[in-house]
Amino acid sequence: MPEHQNRLSALEEKVKNAGLDAFLISTKDSIFYFTGFRYEPFERPFFIVVRPGQKPVFLTPRIEAENMATIAVPHRIVEYIDYPAPAGGSYIEALQTVLPADANIGVEMSITGELMVALSDWSPRVLPFVEQLRMVKSPHEIAAIRKAAKYSDRGLQLAMGLARHGGRIADTDKANALLREEIAQQEGYLDPYISNIWQGIWAAPYSAQPHRFPEPSDTLIEGPNVGLSFLRVNGYSAETERTFFVTSPHKEDAEVFNTMVEAGKIGFAALRPGVSCHEVDHKVMEFLRAEGFGNNLLHRTGHGIGMGGHEGPWVAEGSDDILQENMVVSIEPGIYWRGQGGFRHSDTVLITKDSYELLTDMPHDLASMTLGT
Q1: In 3-state terms, what secondary structure has residue 130?
Q2: Sign (positive or negative) of CA dihedral 163, 165, 169, 170
Q3: 339: number of Cβ within 10 Å
Q4: What pTM did the predictor assign?
């Protein structure tokens, strides 16, 4: 499709401007990004060799060659026998027929260490070309993320709808299956290769540990619970997160909740093209530190969202990333008390020509996030 050809052309331009002879693509998501082809490299490497002014070469194990021939992007196929292979049949020997020994090559940031060692005779440069291209979304990608955001909201609604005071996290897990059924019905197909559906709830006080996986036996009690819908639907991702209560919140919890919401508003207000991601996070963190929460901060304000649920740009103090139109980021400042709980909303946000657009649409206010009231 033209989408993939445009991406390869943009990469080719970067390769040319960097003075490289070639750039090698080798990871699962990058192969899908540039070709639409679903391939799991496993132990048999597959390379897209991008060279200025030439058709890309698909260097493929023989077992995949017929599959690769179906890719719509114009290309040339070079086969190797297998991995491992007898003399004359390895992927390195096949690559030597494409790249001279003195070729100046680049590789993507996510290349495996094993492949870096195998390619060492070329002294490859590790460069963020793929990551840079993926940061700014095309209209096709924005439409896909917008759709994923709708399902992200729906997933969290389903999970929170199953939450009850005294109930176990296991009681809310069926939200995953329910959402899968809804997506498959509405989309016609949920591709398991490029999809991942997950809704989870962190019950207080474990909501203060955002990277602790919820246990089925965790019980919903008073205090701040955090629900997360984190998914990838047919290739593109979104996330929705909300702090909620299953009993009326104590005054202190309500105050912290409202401070967290205010921090999010500061983050949203800072979003527009040309603003540094450092500046966005710094404004949010300065507010939270001024409110007395300097010792209750565990993470940055946000991150990019696209094919991956976590990718650049990084909305963090110290980040070099600059916001551009059609980037998609999360805004999710959090406040955490060990032993008490955590407070965090997260939204998927599109950077527009002059400002931003919320792609997720769940309420932020305390009344809406207090269930059963």
Answers
A1: helix
A2: negative
A3: 8
A4: 0.95
Q: Is 297 helix (H, G, I), strand (E, B) or coil?
A: coil
Regions of the chain where pLDDT drops below 70:
1, 373
Question: What 8-state DSSP symbol labels residue 362?
Answer: -
327 Cα distance to chain centroid = 12
Residue ranges of E strands in the chain:
22-25, 47-50, 57-61, 76-80, 105-107, 125-126, 196-202, 225-233, 236-244, 302-304, 311-315, 328-331, 334-337, 341-344, 347-351, 356-358
pLDDT at position 372: 76
Residue pair 72/1 in contact by the 8 Å Cβ criterion: yes
pLDDT > 90 in the chain, percent: 97
- Give the C-alpha distances (Å, rounded to integers) separating 132 from 41, 60, 90, 137: 23, 26, 31, 11
8 exposed, middle or buried (CB, 10 Å; 0-12, 13-18, 19+)? buried
Q: Is 161 left (phi over 0), alpha (psi -120 to 50) or beta?
A: alpha
**Contact at 8 Å (CB) between 259 and 293?**
yes
Coil vs helix vs strand at 203: coil
Distance of CA 156 to the CA centre of its chain: 18
Tens of pLDDT, residue by residue over 198-223, are: 999 999 999 999 999 999 999 999 99
